[in-house]
């Protein structure tokens, strides 16, 4: 990256109030703990911090320029540049939009209620076989994360896959305005974020905001089994394709067979039938797989090359990550996030991966389900029973409804345990499990269940020594 101060000012409607109007920056940061030499520091405000209080620290660490929307306390060092704007968050997004426009490459936006991260990862891994591909890392999928991802674009990149998240109407519109996608994938519309959006219709409208920004020669790929999504997407004029099980889908899932090590999929891809293998044993992921392969095919990737690459897919951190233990046991770390549908897929994965010991599901609260909150947790409990979980451990205030749902579905009370926090759950796991058990961990990100995963893994590894 190399951005001139003049380019920055024009992009964000900013005014240099200290220093020279010349010079360049070579990276962008909103975190004073992560400052590169000759960096641009943008001072954002949060609920618990104000970046303006760290401008001098950023300069001391090597930042060349800072973007602010109020006066900075203290003395600005000589040789530094301060640019003032009306709103620093808006400036971050305006600058990201201008920077993205420098790159004439296909950018694929991925959104949806469930499975957008997995779909993004699949598309990026397949595209990487042909293109140098940038992708969203971690949870950099919001008003701050998306622009920071776009700033990582470099001259060598030939494609980008950007994940778009939202909690309210208008958010994906803002993100899409920055991203300027050539294509978009909408995985589905489900009762996630009902707490802030209020209705399924609003969720569909929010997801479809991305369609407004598709290139004239680009395309949208949407879940053809979701009638609400299809109806809402019909309001946009971009070229659209569908994927799913319905007979009228352009990319149709014909058959899915779950095996111990993955799923075999037969799919009709616009009139030609292909067989593909995906190395995670959860049939629910067939949607993500077919959507990912279809998107890459529409972008010019040879179908056989895509299918070959698919067989070597590796899950990212905290997303159905399988850790093999001695004596045949496994830890399945799927703590990145959770909702009822992804819980069901994870439980199926655990059932199919178990080899020797018991299947243990350690499940925590799912957030932002709104009016579906209690019902969603009860449903997960029923799915735990249906997937033959041997021991169910729930964590958190809402987790008790998962336990209740399992009991209602006929699971024996001596196999269901509920705990208020991770510490209590950890003590139980250490006392009752062994290294032949397959243990699934999953909850919403706010539960920070990855902490429990690492503690349990450390305990098991040390116990084996």
Automatic annotation (TrEMBL):
<dbReference type="InterPro" id="IPR005863">
    <property type="entry name" value="UDP-N-AcMur_synth"/>
</dbReference>
<keyword id="KW-0132">Cell division</keyword>
<dbReference type="InterPro" id="IPR035911">
    <property type="entry name" value="MurE/MurF_N"/>
</dbReference>
<dbReference type="InterPro" id="IPR013221">
    <property type="entry name" value="Mur_ligase_cen"/>
</dbReference>
<feature type="binding site">
    <location>
        <begin position="112"/>
        <end position="118"/>
    </location>
    <ligand>
        <name>ATP</name>
    </ligand>
</feature>
<dbReference type="GO" id="GO:0047480">
    <property type="term" value="F:UDP-N-acetylmuramoyl-tripeptide-D-alanyl-D-alanine ligase activity"/>
</dbReference>
<keyword id="KW-0547">Nucleotide-binding</keyword>
<dbReference type="InterPro" id="IPR051046">
    <property type="entry name" value="MurCDEF_CellWall_CoF430Synth"/>
</dbReference>
<dbReference type="GO" id="GO:0005737">
    <property type="term" value="C:cytoplasm"/>
</dbReference>
<dbReference type="GO" id="GO:0008360">
    <property type="term" value="P:regulation of cell shape"/>
</dbReference>
<comment type="similarity">
    <text>Belongs to the MurCDEF family. MurF subfamily.</text>
</comment>
<keyword id="KW-0067">ATP-binding</keyword>
<dbReference type="Pfam" id="PF01225">
    <property type="entry name" value="Mur_ligase"/>
</dbReference>
<dbReference type="GO" id="GO:0071555">
    <property type="term" value="P:cell wall organization"/>
</dbReference>
<keyword id="KW-0436">Ligase</keyword>
<dbReference type="GO" id="GO:0008766">
    <property type="term" value="F:UDP-N-acetylmuramoylalanyl-D-glutamyl-2,6-diaminopimelate-D-alanyl-D-alanine ligase activity"/>
</dbReference>
<dbReference type="InterPro" id="IPR036615">
    <property type="entry name" value="Mur_ligase_C_dom_sf"/>
</dbReference>
<dbReference type="GO" id="GO:0009252">
    <property type="term" value="P:peptidoglycan biosynthetic process"/>
</dbReference>
<keyword id="KW-0131">Cell cycle</keyword>
<dbReference type="Pfam" id="PF08245">
    <property type="entry name" value="Mur_ligase_M"/>
</dbReference>
<keyword id="KW-0573">Peptidoglycan synthesis</keyword>
<dbReference type="GO" id="GO:0005524">
    <property type="term" value="F:ATP binding"/>
</dbReference>
<keyword id="KW-0963">Cytoplasm</keyword>
<protein>
    <recommendedName>
        <fullName>UDP-N-acetylmuramoyl-tripeptide--D-alanyl-D-alanine ligase</fullName>
        <ecNumber>6.3.2.10</ecNumber>
    </recommendedName>
</protein>
<feature type="domain" description="Mur ligase central">
    <location>
        <begin position="110"/>
        <end position="296"/>
    </location>
</feature>
<dbReference type="Pfam" id="PF02875">
    <property type="entry name" value="Mur_ligase_C"/>
</dbReference>
<keyword id="KW-0133">Cell shape</keyword>
<comment type="function">
    <text>Involved in cell wall formation. Catalyzes the final step in the synthesis of UDP-N-acetylmuramoyl-pentapeptide, the precursor of murein.</text>
</comment>
<dbReference type="InterPro" id="IPR036565">
    <property type="entry name" value="Mur-like_cat_sf"/>
</dbReference>
<dbReference type="InterPro" id="IPR000713">
    <property type="entry name" value="Mur_ligase_N"/>
</dbReference>
<feature type="domain" description="Mur ligase N-terminal catalytic">
    <location>
        <begin position="25"/>
        <end position="100"/>
    </location>
</feature>
<dbReference type="GO" id="GO:0051301">
    <property type="term" value="P:cell division"/>
</dbReference>
<keyword id="KW-0961">Cell wall biogenesis/degradation</keyword>
<dbReference type="InterPro" id="IPR004101">
    <property type="entry name" value="Mur_ligase_C"/>
</dbReference>
<feature type="domain" description="Mur ligase C-terminal">
    <location>
        <begin position="319"/>
        <end position="445"/>
    </location>
</feature>
<comment type="pathway">
    <text>Cell wall biogenesis; peptidoglycan biosynthesis.</text>
</comment>
């Amino acid at each position: 990256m190399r951005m001139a101060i003049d380019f920055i000012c024009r992009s964000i409607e900013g005014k240099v109030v200290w220093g020279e109007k010349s010079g360049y920056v070579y990276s962008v940061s909103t975190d004073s703990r992560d400052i590169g030499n000759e960096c641009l520091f943008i001072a954002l405000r949060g609920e618990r911090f104000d970046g303006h209080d760290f401008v001098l620290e950023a300069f001391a660490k090597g930042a060349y320029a800072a973007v602010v929307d109020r006066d900075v306390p203290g003395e600005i060092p000589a040789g530094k540049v301060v640019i003032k704007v009306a709103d620093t968050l808006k400036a971050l997004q305006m600058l990201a939009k201008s920077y993205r426009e420098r790159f004439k490459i296909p950018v694929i936006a991925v959104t949806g209620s469930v499975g957008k991260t997995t779909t993004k990862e699949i598309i990026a891994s397949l595209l990487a076989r042909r293109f140098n591909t940038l992708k969203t890392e971690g949870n950099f999928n919001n008003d701050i994360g998306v622009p920071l991802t776009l700033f990582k674009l470099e001259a060598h990149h030939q494609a980008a896959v950007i994940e778009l998240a939202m909690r309210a109407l208008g958010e994906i519109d803002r993100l899409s305005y920055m991203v300027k996608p050539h294509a978009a994938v909408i995985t589905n519309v489900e009762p996630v974020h009902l707490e802030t959006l209020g209705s399924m219709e609003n969720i569909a409208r929010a997801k479809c905001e991305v369609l407004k920004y598709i290139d004239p020669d680009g395309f949208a790929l949407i879940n053809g089994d979701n009638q609400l999504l299809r109806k809402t997407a019909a309001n946009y004029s971009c070229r659209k394709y569908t994927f799913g099980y319905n007979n009228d889908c352009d990319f149709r899932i014909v058959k899915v067979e779950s095996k111990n090590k993955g799923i075999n999929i037969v799919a009709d891809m616009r009139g030609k039938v292909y067989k593909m293998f995906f190395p995670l044993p959860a049939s629910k992921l067939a949607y993500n797989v077919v959507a990912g392969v279809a998107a890459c095919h529409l972008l010019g990737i040879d179908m056989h090359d895509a299918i070959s690459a698919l067989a070597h897919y590796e899950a990212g951190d905290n997303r159905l990550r399988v850790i093999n233990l001695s004596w045949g046991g496994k830890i399945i770390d799927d703590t990145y996030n959770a909702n009822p549908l992804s819980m069901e897929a994870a439980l199926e994965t655990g059932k199919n991966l178990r080899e020797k010991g018991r299947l243990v599901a350690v499940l925590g609260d799912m957030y932002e389900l709104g009016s579906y909150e209690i019902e969603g947790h009860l449903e997960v409990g029923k799915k735990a029973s249906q997937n033959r979980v041997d021991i169910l451990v729930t964590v958190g205030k809402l987790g008790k409804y998962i336990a209740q749902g399992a009991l209602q579905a006929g699971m024996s009370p001596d196999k269901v345990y509920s705990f208020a926090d991770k510490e209590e759950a950890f003590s139980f796991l250490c006392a009752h499990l062994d290294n032949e058990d397959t243990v699934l961990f999953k909850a919403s990100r706010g539960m920070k269940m990855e902490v429990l995963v690492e503690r349990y893994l450390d305990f098991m590894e040390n116990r084996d020594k």
